[in-house]
Amino acid sequence: MKKDEVLEVIEILKETYPDAKCELDYQSPFQLLIATILSAQCTDVRVNKVTARLFQKANSPHEMVGLGIDDLKNEIKECGLFNNKSKNIMLCCTDLLDKHNGEVPGDLDELTNLAGVGRKTANVVLSNAFDVPAIAVDTHVFRVSNRIGIVRAKNVDATEKQLMKKIPKNLWTLSHHLLIFHGRRICTARNPKCEVCPVNEHCRYAKKIS
Q1: Which residues contact residue 41 at a Cβ distance below 8 angstroms, ignoring those fewer than 6 apart?
Q2: Best CA proximity match to 166, nearest among 177, 149, 150, 183
Q3: Which residues are known catalytic residues?
Q4: What is the pLDDT of residues 1-18, one digit of tens each?
Q5: Nearest alpha-carbon partner for 46 in 56, 55, 34, 35
Q6: What residues contact 150, with CB distance under 8 A and at least 6 apart?
Q7: Hey, what long-range contacts does 97-103 have (CB within 8 A, 24 or more apart)?
Q8: Which residues of the chain have pLDDT under 50?
Q9: Read out DSSP for 45-92?
């Protein structure tokens, strides 16, 4: 898909989802970092319920480490994969204390050097907590952008690189949210609602099945 058509798709999605934004609840970069780690293979709605309780008990790297891994596991069980997530959160908080005086860095390399923090998580934190233009490629962004035909990529890294080339930098963060909203509401993994999709005239998948 050429750049001008990509921009048309983005404009249509902007009209369709005028309130598109990060759906994780947070009040600080630290809260967003932890919430994003918890969001892997879990809905934002469930994460928000868990973090509403968790952040009352531990609202900083120091408090999180002080909570202890067993209590943390109990707090985040509802999010699934709690053994791995609790380990990553503890290691991440230890890194924040040891390397950054307990503050979440606003730099991609420093974020991805934290234990348990991948590029997607780092981009979520950068774009939403620090207003740094970024495209975080989660399962929705990967599926929707490739299905529509905005990009043709076999993995998330290639998808991110292609999206950054196709979309103007000032629209990176918003486009990330728009693609997620579209993936959750219409372009679902199973049985996408192509018949009501506002971008079906531009969509490679819709043209293929029509």
Answers
A1: 80, 81
A2: 150
A3: 120, 138
A4: 999 999 999 999 999 999
A5: 35
A6: 1, 6, 9, 162, 163, 166
A7: 97/61, 97/62, 97/65, 102/60, 102/61, 102/62
A8: none
A9: HHHHHHHHHHHHH--SHHHHHHH-HHHHHHHHGGGS-HHHHHHHHHHH
- Residue for token digits 């979309």? 167
CA distance 126 to 76: 24
Count the Cβ atoms, other than its own, within 10 Å of residue 201.
11
Rounded Cα gap, residues 33 and 55, in angstroms:
12
Burial of 42 (0-12, 13-18, 19+ CB in 10 A): middle
Q: Using the 8-state DSSP alphabet, how is residue 169 labeled?
A: G
171 Cβ contact partners less than 8 Å away, ≥ 6 residues apart: 10
CA neighbours closer than 13 Å in the CB half-sphere of residue 7: 7
| CA dist., res. 165 & res. 155, Å (int) | 16
